[in-house]
Amino acid sequence: MDCWVVEMIVRIGACPRCLCNDADAGTSWLSEWAGHLKKPQIANLKLRNDCVVLAESLHLQRYKYLWDVLFHLHPKGQWDEAKSSGMGDKKTDVPSYDLMMEMFTDQPTILILDEFQTWYEGLSNSAKQKTKNWAFNFIQILSEIAQKNPELLVLVVSVREGNSDAYQQVRRVNPVDVDFKCPYAKRHRQRLLHYRIFENHLQVPKVDIAKAIEPHVTEFSFGSAKYRRRIRKSSPKTSRSPGRSPRTCSSCSTIRC
C-alpha cells in the first residue's frame, strides 16, 4: 500500500464525521489533496452523506456490552433499547439480528471500534454472565450485516494480531484487510514519516511555522549571544605558552576548542 493511501486512511479515520456530514467540504478536501499528491483518482472518490458515524475506543471501558455503544450513540438507539427491554420473557441475551437490521435500516451507520482486541481479550465468562460469548455472538451479527448489507452498515474494527479470536470472528465474513505488518510495513512507515515531516507542512500556514521554529533558530544560531555564552562556558581551559594569545574563532571571537 502506498504511503499516500496509508495517510488517507489515517485522515479519513480521524474525521469521518465531517466527511459524511458535509459532503461538499469533503469533496473539496479530496480535490485539494489530489493536486498536492498528484493522484487525480483521489478526487474521484465518492463520499456517502447518508450515514451516521459512530466511533468508540473500547479500551476506555465506557460500555459494559458492545451493543450499548449503539444503544447510547445511534439516533435510534434509545428506541431500540426500549424495544429490546420490553420483550419480557422473549428478550434474548444478545440483541437480535432483526433488531439491528431495523436500526441500520432507519439510519445507515459507519461503526468504528478502536482497540477491539484489547477490549475483547479482557472479557470473561461466569456461571451467570457469558459476557465473552455474548460479545462474540454480537460481533458476528454485525459482521454479517456489514457483509450482506454494506449500504446499511460499514464496520471498521482494529486488532493487533491476525490470529486472535477477536480477529477471526470478523475475518470469517471476508473483510477488507489493511495490514500494517505486511512485508513492506517498515518501508511504508518510513515513507509516511518522511511525508509527515517534509510534505505535510502544506496544511500549516508559513507564518505559524515561522513562529514555531523561531525560538529554536534564535537559541542555537551560531551568531546569537546565548550561543556564544554557551561556547565560552563549555570550552575547556587550554594551556598556552607565556606570552602567546589563545587562538580565537574568527566568527564569534571565542576560544576555539
Report on the structure:
The chain is mostly helical and 257 residues long. It is built from twelve helices and three strands. Helices cover 51% and strands 7% of the residues. The protein has a three-stranded parallel β-sheet. It is elongated.
List the helices and strands and how they pair.
Elements: H1 3-14, H2 16-21, H3 23-37, E1 52-57, H4 66-73, H5 77-85, H6 97-106, E2 109-114, H7 116-121, H8 131-148, E3 153-157, H9 165-171, H10 185-198, H11 206-220, H12 225-234
Parallel strand pairs: 1-2, 2-3
Helix pairs in contact: 1-10, 4-5
For the record, give the distance between the C-alpha atoms at the N and C termini, rounded to a whole number: 50 Å
Largest sheet: 3 strands, parallel
Strand order of the largest sheet: 1-2-3
Poorly predicted runs of 5 or more residues: 1-12
| Cα-based radius of gyration, to the nearest Å | 28 Å
Spell the H/E element sequence. Answer: HHHEHHHEHHEHHHH
How many separate helices? 12
How many strands in all?
3
Compose a concise summary of this entry.
The chain has 257 residues and is mainly alpha-helical.
List keywords for this structure.
single chain; 257 residues; mainly alpha; 2 domains; 7% strand; disordered N terminus
